[in-house]
Amino acid sequence: MEKAKKIKISLALIYGVVISLLLGAFFSKFSLNDLTSYEFIKSNRDYLTAIKESNYFLVSILFLIFTIIWVFLLGFATPIFLLGGFIFGKWVGTLLVVFGLSTGATILYIFANYFLKDLIKNKFSSRFSNLNEKFKQNEFSFFLIYRFVGGIPFFISNILPTLFNVKTRNFFWGSLIGMTPQVFVGTALGSGIEKIINKNEEAPTFLELIASSEIYIPVLGFIFLVILGFFLKRFFYNN
Question: Would you say residue 6 lies in a domain?
Fold first, then answer.
């Protein structure tokens, strides 16, 4: 038992080191100024478009694999929403992103369930004990709502279900279906940003951005999902 515990701790530490190295390598090549520069984004948009058009299928598979690895190692979802829509458009982007996020999140859940369960219990069990009975009543339906409602940082929402022993298949399919509306709105926004960049040599003003249907429709969709999620959260979590 003690040996198994040491192995789990070692693997968890390796996981943390790998994340730190990846983040360090990324920010050693790109600064925050680069990532927010219109010229940088536009030049890379042209580069990404050329790569995609050279071999659409291969680029799609590589993006899917990248998304799975990204979620497993870093646990962030928002940049992937936008990037998927930016490169592939809202329809194909949604398909690739939701499958990649669901697969990566499921792998992370399996990893956390085996190696981090005790740590998660110590940290979160008292705060989320009220959800135990709800998961027991109808695990898949409640997990579907849990995914749709959101409101918890994506990384935490992937490992928290270890407290409730959610079945892996319910975790995957609940994630796939429950996250699709959010993913579609996010990829639509990424696709809208790509279209605006394609039309404008110079950075558009804020008013020009929000006046564009490619931007304000996904933003309104996001606001609608937030409001709907708020009421669903109050109803299902408190009753």
Answer: no
Residues 38-94: pLDDT tens digits? 455 566 677 777 778 888 999 999 999 989 988 988 777 777 888 888 889 889 999
Domain count across the chain:
1
Question: Containing domain of residue 90, as a range?
Answer: 31-238
Question: CA 183 → CA 52, 128, 221, distances in Å?
Answer: 21, 26, 11
User: Which residues have C-beta within 8 Å of that of residue 42, sequence separation ≥ 6?
Assistant: 197, 201
Judge whether 77 lies within some domain. Answer: yes
Instruction: Judge whether 116 lies within some domain.
Output: yes
* Token pair of 18 as six digits: 């790998």
Q: Which candidate, 96, 87, 79, places its Cα nearest to that of 45?
A: 87
Structural domain contains residue 145: yes
Long-range residue pairs from 167-173, CB within 8 A, at least 24 positions apart, any chain: 167/139, 168/106, 168/109, 168/110, 170/139, 170/140, 170/143, 171/105, 171/106, 171/109, 171/143, 172/102, 172/103, 172/106, 173/140
Going by the DSSP 8-state scheme, the letter that residue 204 receives in this structure is P
**Separation CA 171–CA 159 (nearest Å):** 11
For residue 175, the SS3 value is helix
